[in-house]
## 1
Amino acid sequence: MRRGLEAMMISNAGILRTRFGTGLSLVASILVTLFGLLALTFVIGRVMPVDPVLAIIGDEANQETYNRVYQQLGLDQPIYVQFFRYVSDMVQGNFGVAILTGKPVIDDIIRVFPATVELATLAIIFGAGVGIPLGVYAATKRDRLADHIIRFLTLIGYSTPVFWLGLIGLILFYAKLGWSGGTGRVEIYYTGIVQPITGFLLIDSAITGEWDVFWSAARNIWLPAVILGTSSMAYISRMTRSFMLEQLSQEYVITARIKGLSARQVVWRHAFLNIRVQLVTIVALAYGSLLEGAVLIETVFSWPGFGAYLTSNLMIGDMNAVMACVLLVGILFIGLNLLSDILYRVFDPRTRS
Amino acid sequence: MTVDTRQNLTLRQWMTTEEVTNGRQAFVQKVYWGAVGFLQNPLALIGLAVIVVLLLVAAFAPLIATHDPLAQDLGAALQPPSAAHYFGTDELGRDIFSRIVFGSRITLYIVMLVSVIVGPIGMAVGMTAGYFGGWTDKVLMRVTDIFLSFPSLVLALAFAAALGPGLENAVIAIALTAWPPIARLARAETMTIRSSDFIAAATLQGAGSIRILRHYIFPLCLPSVIVRITLNMAGIILTAAGLGFLGLGAQPPAPEWGAMTSAGRRFMLDSWWVVTMPGSAILIVSLAFNLFGDGLRDFLDPRHGR
């Protein structure tokens, strides 16, 4: 009984599951996919109408300088040579220098990434923490009012433009109610007090005992995290419902009921335990797709993370930085897919030979 | 329609009887039960109604809009909703209601164009991979997987940035990210159809690969692909709105809903309607497509049956 959106979500998820075998073929498969990612980003980078030479030297430089930089960048080489250089640069982690900051792109990404991870982690905790119980509850109340309401609400969560929800959240919880600290990671006057240790501001400020900063950070992070988590909550709850329905229609459920177990015990001790594996993989995939929402939410909340870095580089047409970001997202996405695949194997005894 | 007169059944009985006597009756029964199910699904009907309204609004936009969507009136900037301006005015005094009405054309334009591009590409890749199998399949599916290994907005962002901002480029960018799921679906369908007896019969009669793909496999793949595209439409709308919000979609002064939301950000704390209205339009339309797609799926999915 898995239909419509659920079926679509499933087929979007687990991209690599069916195709990845074991051991050697797994490694080969990952390598081929990574190579494909490089080829794709290279092609996109080549299409970019922004002249990479002009981006470096500016409009005013003379033709001689232009030609020199043109050669330095290797743009006079044949395409396959350029591609080879590109791949070898990428493999060595040499993503070039970002125009915006003047630092190596890789350093920039390492610096901004913790902010996104912190946000996304809280978001997924919210998404799974609310989504899973909602889904289980909906499944036990199948086709009754509560089920319909939950399904409709999750559908709304799935259909809402996340950037708009962020803006509405700011109007409501920041401007009107004052529950949220507004945009950025902390209030401006706390900025820079805590030196990054892990890069996760909540943890860093707690370690150093800067509790004012901690509370300011907490006040600022909860709103974007909840809003970012909303779409994954919708996804997780729909999938949970669908998984649970599958279990609840099995005969062991009837047996357990006849044996005298309460409905609650059957649902949580038996049926729920059987969908753990599927849930873990779904949550891992949802975590990956949070990266997508992060691009928009970080723009709305001026969150100095990976998504905001990507969009600000998009605006100025810095090809190096954009392609590095896109490539990284691709790698992360594959990594999470792989992780969910591995978790599946680890947790599901049936997949062991 | 030949009603089976032997048993003197009424049309309704003929459509609901358990004793199916021919293929046509089976088909009619399937449609009948599907339609009954669809009509009993109020949410799907609401979705359909909203989509119909959207189509009408887009078609008759000049008649429905109360103002010129591009006409500026700085004297009437940031007016709250009122009888003169149903949804208020934006920072340049433009009527937000009229802009949303005309914006429906942009949204539909993107959705339709992306669907029209994505359907054929996805089906061509998927059917080829599924029918020929072997290395063709491996290579094509690997390419599909690579496209799938990006979140669609991020990949669309990269393409839109590479092609330059603009409505047409946004359409191309979204289309480039939206075809892989269609291809995977078409491949799966083709693989189940490929081994059927009627395909073997056609091959024995001398039908070439192209003919089999076009006349035998294509019609059978089409329904599920259409359902899938319908389900994708909500996602397309959200991606398009996201691109517009980031300034990579339709360019000002075009009344694109995402761009309108983005432009209203600076004024939203004092003038809530500037972001609330266009965003609600995106939500309602994308919700409608989700509801409709969900219902359509039940309607066309043979496994669901009665």
Note: Confidence is low (pLDDT under 50) at residues 11-20 of chain A.
## 2
Amino acid sequence: MISTTSMTFDDRPSARQVCVFLARYGTALLGCGATCIRLEKNIDRIAASWGMKTSITIMPRHLHITVTDPGSDDLFTAIDEVSPAAVSFSLNTRLSRLSWEVADCHLNYDNTVERFDDIIANCGGRLSRGGELLLVAAANASFCRLFGGDAVAMAVVAVATLAGYYLKILMLEHHIDVRVVVMASAFVSAVLAAGDALFGIGSTPGVALATSVLYLVPGVPLLNSFSDILYRHYICAFSRLVDATVTVACLSIGMCGGMLLMNQGMF
Amino acid sequence: MSLPFVTWCCIAGLFVVLLLVRLARMARVCFNRPGRIFEIGTEREEMFIPGDRLKLDEHDLDDFDDL
């Protein structure tokens, strides 16, 4: 159970404090894969519960926020950089929940900052690497089944996914460019999945090959870009769409390279 | 041997080697850590009779130890 302290009039933070905190909060939320509309709503919710007004400009890699205190006419602006981080629904959910706690439980500024630092330090309760690997492999094998793959194809896809995803983790740990990582992972997964056709062990080798790289498809950026288009955040939407397109192109290059070497499919 | 077969074997072989290297590294780290699974203990650790002095109390002698 977390103890909280409700805000009194004396606890009211300054516009500068609120602005600096909200810039940190916003960049963390944007970095973990939140849509622009969620960012706007959460920031407005927190600012309103502290009696402030905000104006936000969301750029693909920067957040520009101005906080106004109607009581004292103080105005403060901050620009913060979005740190590139992995998409994390857990972090996304916890940060959104924090905004509701500020609004509903009237959390004061110090408590909110403490809770925020705690959430960031724990990375939103991230899975262990082994657990993540197994879940991704199981998910991709399930995709294979959904597309009509047999048990052998599912097993081949699971192994190909394990190898490709493991390579992805290793390369990202060594700070290799993400586009090169996607290409290499797709290549390895495609080559290993082609083993189904090469050794003639299953009846659906095509499905195994096609679904072996699905774990690399940037689903979240594609969905977020569509959401941003709906809410007229065109710059962010376009940026996310281009990012996702580049990733898909790298995935295709890696997969085509694998298929070419394995004498599979369209070549 | 065909090119696809060689390619597949190379990729699969590299991964097996990579996994073995990582496992060996992990095993070495585990072996060097205190509290390993197998180790040669002291006589005191192997045979302890209630009433024996604990290692921590080695300098805390009382009258019973003189007997």
Note: Chain A touches chain B at residues 163, 166, 188, 191-192, 194-195, 198, 261-264 (CB under 8 Å).
